[in-house]
Amino acid sequence: MAHVDQSRAHDKRRLLQAFGLTSSYLIVEVIGGLWTNSLALLADAGHMLTDVCGLLLALVAITLAARPATVTRTYGYYRVEILAAVANAVLLLGVSAYILYEAYERLVDPPAVTSGVMLIVAVIGLVVNLIGMRLMQEGVDRSLNVKGAYLELLSDTISSVGVIIAAIVMWTTGWYYADPLLSAGIGLFILPRTWSLLRDAIAILMEGTPPHLDLNDVRASLEALDGVLAVHDLHAWSITSGVPALSCHVVRKADADAADVMRRAHECVRTRYGIDHATIQVEGPDWAEAETHA
Q1: pLDDT tens digit string along 37-96?
Q2: DSSP letter for each residue of 4-25
Q3: CATH for 264
Q4: Rounded distance between C-alpha atoms, residue 291 and residue 294, angstroms
Q5: DSSP code of 228?
Q6: Do both 156 and 118 map to the same domain?
Q7: What is the pTM of this model?
Q8: Is 209 exposed, middle or buried (0-12, 13-18, 19+ CB in 10 A)?
Q9: Strands 228-240 and 243-252
Q10: Same domain, 199 and 236
Q11: Is residue 292 part of a domain?
């Protein structure tokens, strides 16, 4: 897993940079939201807060994941990253619910908003979010932990654009309903993305088959190898994001060499499916009628 550790070290540097940038701007946005009386700006600050918390969780998780395995935690701490992704998703859901509630309250009686200052703060926030997204983009496909942080930054980027539009509308027309309406839109925007993150993280915790793997295809590939009679007890799961694992029993033909069958089976799952961590048990043909589970 050396290449995984190297990737995580790179991700950690990017996370640190994004955390410093985002946490610094959070203070500015909270002050701006209170000063201008803008729920949209405070909603954006709420998302920024989840960014800061999410990035902090991601940093803690990626640091713990680098710790070596022990006799009591034989896979090390890789799963901490997935727990952090779940925590990020729950946090985002809570913030979204609060924003939607507050937006409803303000639709009943929309207060005046200092839209000029709101516009300036929102533009700065947009720039900060774009920089943060650029830092996180590289690690999105290989880590749910980084993906969680990236999605939070993405939602903030979209909400910053919305805040800018709402500020311009209020500045030019005085229509203050734009503030709670935009805030509700921000809250609704992140719900499907948050659900996607939560679903993927729970799938890993439940040791579901990695989405890029078709076990029927894996089975067919193994059974097509010379000397293989059958494959049973085939299971695949993810240790953490981008680290698939597999175990199975391969029944060899009577005239096949067990060591050769094992070597080719490992080579098959590694080269065709990218699975470096595989546990393959080779059995004699007399095992073909044994009880199987998959």
Answers
A1: 877 777 777 767 767 777 777 777 677 767 777 787 777 777 877 887 788 788 878 878
A2: HHHHHHHHHHHHHHHHHHHHHH
A3: 3.30.70.1350
A4: 10
A5: E
A6: yes
A7: 0.71
A8: middle
A9: antiparallel
A10: no
A11: no
